Amino acid sequence: MVRIYRVAGARRLSERHAPKAGHDEQLQRGHRDREQRAVLMERIRIARELHDVTAHHLSVIAVQAGLARYVLATDSETADQALRTISEVGSEGLAELRRLISLLRPEEDEGTRARADDRPAPGIAQLPVLIERVGLSGTPSRYAVAGHQRPLAAGIELCVYRVVQESLTNALKHAPGSSVDVRLEYEPECVRVTVSDTGIHGIPPQRSRTPRSAAAQAADHTGAGVGLTGMRERAALYGGELSAGRKPDGGFEVVLTLPLNGAAAEETYSRTVALNSR
């Protein structure tokens, strides 16, 4: 009888602990799922940033190298300008990659990171240089600002810059020789940026100094659709919207709208885009 009572007691004790064990297992499973989602999102953010940093700079370098080779024997001044652009873009791209790599290495101390590159992440102030560079690559570009200009959250500025950068890269690769208009509008509750090109339909061959083969080479070495996906992901991070598509006249247009909620933007920026700034 004593043994029976002991077995029954052990069974009752096991039954009482079963719900707690199941609950603990559920908590552990939930914790593992959250960790896996966090790792996945981090991989997506790293991939997006690497794409944005490398695709633009390498595309400009490819186009400028093709241009320099094309005019080397007939227009030394243009060839020299193309080579200078290659040097500048290459240095800028390496600096951005160094910053990104240093932030991906948690074992490095702050002093090591500071020595890697002390330039901040790009923002709206760097847009004129970016747009001028694409113009020098054979895609005439114009920049206009409307509304009351004011300081924006760092994350919003980076988002605007990356979307303009990717849009210009796409125009350079897929519509060389077309005209591109970049318009930045400050509204009371949002900021809107529109990047539109005229497309390649009806462009005289002599309008663009860039050989088609150079633009085609730049386009062949980038993943189709990756840039648009990255732009939409960036917009979503800040509660914004991005539309992209063909225009009735045959060109292409990208419109980014971001709400100017500074506190929320900075919180998102600090939490999800730590790879881009110090």
Explain this structure.
The longest helix is centred in the N-terminal third of the chain and has 70 residues. Strand 2 and strand 3 form a beta hairpin. This protein is about 60% helix and about 15% strand. Strands 1-2-3-5-4 form a five-stranded mixed β-sheet, covered by helices on one side. The protein contains eight helices and five strands; from the N terminus they run H-H-H-H-E-H-E-E-H-H-E-E-H. By secondary structure, it is α+β, with helices and mostly antiparallel strands. The termini are far apart. Helix 1 crosses helix 5, helix 5 packs across helix 6 and helix 5 packs antiparallel against helix 7.
Supply database-style keywords:
single chain, 278 residues, alpha+beta
Task: Please outline the helices and strands.
Layout: H1 2-71, H2 76-103, H3 110-116, H4 127-136, E1 141-146, H5 154-174, E2 180-186, E3 190-197, H6 212-220, H7 226-237, E4 241-246, E5 252-259, H8 262-272
Parallel strand pairs: 1-2
Antiparallel strand pairs: 2-3, 3-5, 4-5
Order of helices and strands: HHHHEHEEHHEEH
> If helices are DSSP runs of H or I spanning 4 or more residues, what is the number of helices?
8
- Strand fraction band? 5-15%
Query: Helix share of residues?
Result: 55-70%
The structure class reads alpha+beta
Shape: elongated
Mean pLDDT: 75
**Which blocks of ≥5 consecutive residues have pLDDT under 50?**
262-267, 271-278
Give the end-to-end Cα distance, rounded to a whole number of Å. Answer: 72 Å
Largest sheet: 5 strands, mixed
Please count the beta strands (DSSP E, at least 2 residues each): 5
Taking all Cα atoms into account, the compactness measure Rg is 26 Å
Please state how the strands of the largest beta sheet are arranged side by side: 1-2-3-5-4
